[in-house]
Amino acid sequence: MAKKHILIVPGDGIGQEVTAVGKKVLDKIAARFNHEFTYDEALIGHVAIEATGDPLPAESLEKMRNSDAVLFGAVGHPKYDNDPSAKVRPEQGLLKMRKELGLYANLRPIKLFDELLGASSIKPEILKGADILFFRELTGDIYFGEKGRKNNGDTAYDVAEYSRYEVQRIGRKAFDAARTRRKKLVSVDKANVLESSRLWREEIQKLALEYPDVEVEYQFVDATAMILIKEPTRFDVVVTANLFGDILTDEASQIAGSMGMLASASIGDGTGVYEPIHGSAHDITGKGLANPMASVLSAALLLDISFGLKEESEAIISAIDQVLKKGFRTRDIADKTTDPSMILGTDAIGEEILKLL
Ligand code: NAD
Questions:
Q1: How many domains does the chain have?
Q2: Which of ligand 1's atoms lies nearest the C-alpha of 295?
Q3: 173: domain CATH number?
Q4: Which of the listed ranges 76-80, 129-133, 249-253, 299-303 does the model predict with the highest average pLDDT?
Q5: Do residue 281 and residue 197 come from a single domain?
Q6: What is the pTM of this model?
Q7: Mean pLDDT on 14-35
Q8: How far apart are CA 57 and CA 42, in angstroms?
Q9: In a mutational test of the pocket of ligand 1, which residue from 250, 261, 278 has the highest number of ligand atoms less than 8 Å from its CB?
Q10: Please, where are the H alpha helices in 180-289?
């Protein structure tokens, strides 16, 4: 029996709706497998700014540090998207959380449920069998380097910076994961142009000597963007820098049919944070249309990675698989062949997942 304390951090927009389903699934798992999960909640993002003026209040950070894992929703609000001059922004809460908790590796498994082969905009015969695990570096690169304006504000800059240590620690996690899978690693950079990428490649090449059983391929990011769509089955584990990973994983989300199906884990040396890859989706907030499966799959990753509860994690994935096999869909993963009566809202599809658990 596991005794764990889980912090629920729903954040903004549909983050609230999908995380509620994720929590119910964790509760169901605790009951079925006889674990004891206790919960607390914390604020982040726009809701935190509204309540306290701070996108990540000290109290939230403290609660994160004191929990065994965090189930996170999303941050963001249209108010800030349309106002680039806003000094306090929801995303600052997210970046600060990653930095303060030392979450340097973002893992994004991209695996297509067979039932959704038709939901992707990519041809099923190209997609079938695609199973990729992305490792995106999360605390360095252009997002965290020096930024500013010069020439009276007419020129802007963001510095991309990596240290050897930063590349090594994520590289090692990716090599270790490749060892447990199909033993293939693609390291993505832009070493033909960028100095930070040349250092990245040097360090991955050094690590490769320690993992002779893992086959390593080096790709430029522009090529990877193309191959992901042309031949997604070529990839097993992919490791890349923060900015490239941000873009490539959204592109790869189309392999899984929808952003609403993709979970991620952000891990480091302390508390791990588990979250859907999608944002706060204000276009559908409050309408009950959000697909909660990315949050439910995030809960599955949480059980597997932070608590080592593999069987429980697989039970969740299997429940989702069965819900899809029964023909249930949310609107984002429905296609023209879907019976309209099988298209369910956020809570209703959550109930179907719970029934199967
Ligand atoms: P988004 O991911 O919120 O939405 C993109 C599109 O996908 C929208 O049409 C949305 O309706 C749809 N979508 C996303 N998740 C879905 C789900 N679970 N079910 C069904 N449809 C879903 O990205 P965006 O519209 O570019 O950004 C909206 C806000 O979210 C912005 O403020 C942005 O800054 C923020 N954002 C936050 C995160 C995060 O918290 N990790 C990530 C990306 C964007």
A1: 2
A2: 18
A3: 3.40.718.10
A4: 299-303
A5: no
A6: 0.89
A7: 98
A8: 9
A9: 278
A10: 195-210, 221-230, 242-252
